[in-house]
UniProtKB/TrEMBL annotation:
Keyword match DNA repair: no
Source species: Alkaliphilus metalliredigens (strain QYMF)
Signal sequence region: none
Domain (VanZ-like): residue spans on this chain: 60-167
Listed transmembrane segments: 6-32, 92-112, 118-136, 148-171
Name of this protein: VanZ family protein
Keywords: Membrane, Transmembrane, Transmembrane helix
Stored InterPro entries: VanZ-like
Phylogenetic lineage: Bacteria, Bacillati, Bacillota, Clostridia, Peptostreptococcales
Length: 183
């Protein structure tokens, strides 16, 4: 990946976080509804394909499968408790966004360092500091609150990304050592 592309990805993610953190009283469910409406325009072919596959599955239509029962229970619960679903989705969004930011910062700084582990450490520290600063900044936005719990949840996404990167480094080094030099 070229350096300018890596910079653009990192700046884009940070800009997105900054923008979303600046919206007073931001809610996830209305955004997901709009996103779902947008995606549904392109999803017609997948729906048709799923219907064709479903018609060919050997299944008694009078009996719900465990998956259908679980998904039905979830939808009933979500409809009755939108605040809890909103909370869960917001926390998942925190983890996913900071997971992606950690990986993007790793790719960026891996181009500037000789050791990948240095880039991993730098990505972990920088993303964690950014998560804390973002939460602090939110304390100045009307309708938003700063929360150490959100920093901890961000840190879960950061830690997962860091572990994934370290695992990938370990696997690729092990694989390259087994293959030997490419000459």
């Amino acid at each position: 990946m070229k350096k300018w592309k890596a910079w653009m990805i990192v700046i884009g993610i940070i800009g997105g976080i900054f923008y979303l953190s600046s919206i007073p009283g931001l809610r996830v469910l209305p955004i997901l509804k709009e996103f779902n409406t947008f995606i549904m325009r392109f999803d017609v072919y997948f729906i048709r394909m799923a219907e064709i596959i479903a018609q060919r599955l050997p299944m008694d239509s009078n009996e719900l499968t465990p998956f259908q029962t679980a998904s039905n229970d979830f939808y009933v619960y979500a409809k009755a408790n939108p605040v809890i679903i909103e909370f869960i989705l917001r926390k998942i969004a925190h983890m996913v966004v900071f997971f992606c930011l950690t990986i993007a910062i790793f790719f960026l700084f891996n181009q500037y360092t000789k050791k990948s582990t240095t880039a991993v450490l730098f990505a972990f520290i920088l993303t964690t500091v950014f998560a804390a600063l973002d939460e602090f900044r939110q304390s100045f936005v009307d309708g938003r609150v700063s929360s150490l719990i959100d920093v901890f949840i961000d840190a879960i996404g950061i830690t997962f990304a860091t572990l994934l990167i370290l695992f990938a480094i370990f696997i690729t080094k092990k694989w390259s050592n087994e293959k030997g030099p490419l000459h």
